Amino acid sequence: MMDVVALEELLIDFACMETDETGYPVMATHSDGAPANFLAAINKFGGKTALIAKVGDDTFGNLITATLRDAAIDTRGIVHADDVFTTLAFVTFNKEHDRQFSFSRKPGADTCLHKEEIDASLIDRAKVFRFGTLSLTDEPARSATRYAVAYAKQQGKLISFDPNFKKPLWHCLDDAKEQMLWGLGQADIVKISDEEVAFLFGDGNPISQAKMLLAKYPAKLVYVTLGKHGCAFANAKASGMMSAYNEEVVVKDTTGADDIFGGSAMWAFLQSGKVPDELSEEELRHIVWFATVSAGLSTTKAGGVSSVPTFAEVQERMKR
After folding, report:
1. Strands 87-93 and 11-19, how do they pair?
2. Is the dihedral of CA 299, 300, 302, 305 positive or negative?
3. pTM of the full predicted structure?
């Protein structure tokens, strides 16, 4: 049995470490992709996960697969294509350490996954199926994702959704909204950022927004992440807010922090042994605090998969 199987993008990040005397960025390379960061957190804390995705049969695709194996993520669902390249992302940072993206994806291998290439036996073995919208930007990956979600629902799996909105990857913002709203209509557990909620529904109080998503969509548990300001949460029994973990944190790289929050929260939720709408406020606060500390610690290291803290590190900081 696996805890979580995910389907979405895999890519290589070229992250700016500094600029040279002419202003050009000096880049460091890391394996990335929201599901990889998400699953790496679950595995780091003792869970079992697998990933369904497509990469190029090239140096970067092989590096990504090796990185996932090192993180103990099951890679049998990853397809290596010889006709398209692995997607590349070029990441620069502003003064607040927030990321700005440019992508090489015309097309990237991650958009070329066909439903016939999906190993459904991995979904059969999972408790949770997780997806996002970056596999919904283009065909054939969009149809493959919708097929996998429908299959997981038929098998009675919990469905987890993270919109993971990246504006540069969409040809049309109306299409982005349509796919994000479709995703919200499928999920039992939703992790969504305050910026994504604002994009879809306008600005508002994060707790009220989390409650709105519960009322309007099938979700039983909602996290609205607020970056350095923390996270709002809600289910049928409770709602609230948790501040971000900032104590003694010197931010080096925010890449993957939101995904690591999601994976950490998923791991802590699975440890409860409960269904999403049965969690008490105390249990929800413990889950969100664990995930907040984990995400905060991840920003002190470079990269996504490589930045997940150990369980002992998270526990030690939580005790403070």
Report:
1. parallel
2. negative
3. 0.93
Size of the chain in residues: 320
**Structure-token match 């038929």, residue found:** 154
Classify residue 49 by burial, with Cβ atoms within 10 Å: 0-12, 13-18, 19+.
buried
126 bridge partner residues = 2
Query: Contact at 8 Å (CB) between 189 and 269?
Result: yes
**Token code pair at residue 80:** 């290596």
Q: Which residues contact 72 (CB under 8 A, 6 or more apart)?
A: 43, 48
- As a whole number of angstroms, the distance between CA 129 and CA 238 comes to 24
DSSP 253: -
Inter-residue contact 25 to 54 (CB < 8 Å):
no
Instruction: State the DSSP H helix or E strand holding residue 249, giving kind and residue range, or none if neither.
Output: none
DSSP-assigned letter for residue 241:
E
What is the CB neighbour count within 10 angstroms for residue 58? 17
The string of DSSP letters for 115-129 reads GGG--HHHHHTEEEE
Residue with tokens 């969009």, as numbered in its chain: 142
Residue listed under structure tokens 């909204």: 177
Domain 2-9+34-53+73-78+113-319 has CATH 3.40.1190.20: yes
Instruction: Give 12-64 pLDDT, tens digit per residue.
Output: 888 777 888 888 878 888 787 899 999 999 999 999 999 999 999 999 999 99
Cα distances from 193 to residues 51, 164, 182, 234, in angstroms, run 23, 8, 17, 14
**Locus of tokens 């469905």:** 159
Domain ranges of the chain: 2-9+34-53+73-78+113-319
Contact between residue 82 and residue 57 where contact means Cβ atoms under 8 Å apart: yes
- Residue 70 CA: distances (Å) to CA of 31, 43, 76, 102: 12, 10, 14, 27
**pLDDT tens digits for range 264-283:** 999 999 999 999 999 999 99
